[in-house]
Specification:
- Helix content is 32%, strand content 28%.
- By secondary structure, it is an alpha+beta fold.
- A hairpin with a 2-residue loop joins strand 3 and strand 4 (73-80).
- Helix 1 packs antiparallel against helix 2 (28-43).
- The two termini are 26 Å apart.
Length: 104
């Protein structure tokens, strides 16, 4: 059965913020490139949903959260049967304790 990837509203909002940041701080081409790299990285999960490292800061949650790294960003997700939920795109340059924000 095919694994499906879903993005939470929170993660989509974070992608939009990343795009806007680079669009205004650099240029639209760089903004597109960074966001596409993040999205493309998640597609690798279709072949191996458990490839990400367990996120130790979220081990107290009901679900097991894992992450992939793309550039300066952690792509935080959880896997359940044949569904992958992208929960957050966290900027690793921020305080690690903020990683819990927005993840339910």
């Amino acid at each position: 059965m095919e694994v499906k990837i879903f993005w939470t509203e929170f993660a989509i909002t974070q992608l939009d913020q990343i795009f806007d940041f680079y669009k205004y701080r650099a240029n639209i081409d760089l903004a597109k490139k960074i966001v596409l790299q993040i999205v493309d990285r998640t597609l690798e999960l279709k072949n191996n949903p458990l490839m990400g490292t367990i996120e130790m800061l979220l081990t107290n949650r009901k679900r097991e959260y894992r992450y992939l790294v793309e550039g300066n960003y952690k792509i935080i997700y959880c896997f359940d049967e044949n569904h992958i939920k992208i929960s957050s795109v966290f900027d690793c340059r921020l305080n690690p304790n903020k990683i819990k924000k927005g993840i339910k």
